[in-house]
Write a structure and sequence with these properties.
Layout lengths: L6 E5 L4 H13 L3 E8 L7 H9 L4 E6 L1 H14 L11 H20 L3 E3 L8 H12 L4 E3 L10 H10 L15 E4 L4 E4 L29 E8 L2 E5 L2 E2 L2 H14 L4 E7 L5 E7 L1 H17 L2 H20 L5 H13 L5 E8 L2 E8 L7 H4 L12 H22 L2
Length: 406
């Protein structure tokens, strides 16, 4: 029989599910619960969560603004890798989980807790992301995943439990929600219910961060993003902190109908799931970063990064942020960014991010060599003959052998 739990740190949002988990932990495990709520840019006031936790008898409550750390130490390193899961997903939910888990473990250590808990279901990816991070950071910690233990497997049962235990239930939570949502400074995701039919187009009223491309302004918006060693540091010449910069790109992108993705993705647990995402600022940042690399990054280094990008994205998606292989890849990627500095100019227009200019003191683009005009000896075109013959040698040999066969 496992040892009793004395104290558990819960990743708490103040919503219905985690409020029920908070009460269930105290009832089922007879343990003290520490509530931890991370502000990653959800766009809502989190202080009411404190009052709700206090009303449910919680004594230790942590509500922390982690937006700058989130963008600086998690989002930006990921964008240095040009990571997109299955070619399109900007990993907005995936990249948030390791930070929440990291801070949970730190709070558990500081408060003497011997367990951590989360509200992820047994069908999703988040349970894997949280728990892989827990185990990597503190292998002795006890992990409690209520959705894999309790029998509250329907909204009716959850609401009945809440009513029986005096847990407030908002009026809009008593009906069937049309979809589930997850929001932070990088993105907003929608899943479930009406989106479970892959043929059905999302309703326009669902979107929050962006206008539709059809309703975007008829006049384009121009923006310049400055980079230093692969990270954006300024917009239109104005230096900004990481979180402030991403928030500004969100505003610019959303106003121009940028960043909507509708995809059927492959979850790590084995099933396919449809997700609809809004990532306006991240979409702009991804295009701008690749444009900066196109000017400053060596060809083979760039091509190697393109090979590693999907691997990196899968590691983030599947929850391996703290794994040795992700850390190894990050070291390689960060080394490639030494000279990725300069300015990219973009045109934002009706859902499109169009690169219209780029400049850098580290540019590898040499007009004297590439020009179609006279290059004054900068490039000897006759050198190409030997280059082509050597590269064609294996194909010429194969062709000659086949020609001589009966």
């Amino acid at each position: 029989m496992s040892k009793p739990v004395k104290k558990a740190v819960l990743a708490y949002s103040g919503g219905l599910d985690t409020s029920i988990i908070l009460t269930w932990l105290k009832e089922h495990y007879e343990c003290e619960v520490v509530a931890f709520c991370a502000d990653l840019g959800q766009g809502e006031e989190l202080e009411p969560a404190r009052a709700k936790a206090q009303a449910l008898g919680v004594k230790e409550i942590f509500i922390e603004d982690l937006k700058e750390e989130f963008v600086r130490d998690f989002v930006f390193p990921m964008y240095r890798a040009n990571a997109l899961y299955e070619g399109v997903y900007h990993l907005g939910t995936s990249i948030a989980r390791p930070l929440i888990a990291k801070r949970q473990i730190e709070i558990a250590t500081a408060t003497g807790a011997d367990a951590v808990s989360h509200g992820a279901t047994g069908k999703g990816n988040d349970q894997v992301r949280f728990e892989l991070a827990y185990h990597a950071l503190r292998p002795d910690i006890r992990v409690i995943a209520p959705w894999r233990e309790w029998d509250l497997n329907s909204r009716e049962k959850l609401i009945a439990y809440a009513d029986a235990h005096g847990i407030p239930v908002a009026k809009d939570k008593r009906g069937e929600a049309p979809y589930s949502m997850d929001r932070n400074l990088l993105h907003l995701s929608f899943e479930g219910k009406i989106l479970e039919d892959p043929w059905r187009e999302p309703e326009e009223e669902m979107f929050i961060l962006s206008v539709s491309p059809e309703r975007a302004p008829d006049k384009p918006t121009y923006v310049e993003i400055s980079f230093e060693k692969g990270d954006p540091v300024a917009i239109d010449g104005t230096p900004m902190s990481p979180a402030t910069l991403l928030a500004r790109l969100n505003s610019l992108g959303g106003a121009n109908g940028i960043g909507r993705v509708d995809m059927v993705e492959n979850r790590y647990v084995g099933m396919k799931s449809r997700g609809v995402y809004e990532t306006p600022g991240g979409t702009i940042l991804g295009v701008a970063h690749r444009a900066m690399e196109s000017l400053t990054l060596d060809r083979e280094a760039a091509h190697l990064k393109d090979e590693l990008g999907p691997r990196y994205a899968a590691l983030v998606y599947n929850g391996y942020w703290f794994s040795p292989e992700r850390l190894m890849l990050q070291a390689l990627i960060d080394a490639s960014q030494t000279y990725v500095s300069g300015v990219v100019r973009l045109k934002l227009y009706k859902g499109n991010v169009i690169v219209v200019g780029r400049r850098s003191e580290q540019s590898l683009f040499d007009p004297a060599i590439v020009t179609f005009e006279e290059d004054h000896g900068a490039y000897d075109q006759s050198d190409a003959s030997g280059f082509i013959k050597l590269n064609a040698l294996r194909m010429r040999i194969a062709a000659l052998v086949r020609q001589n066969r009966p």
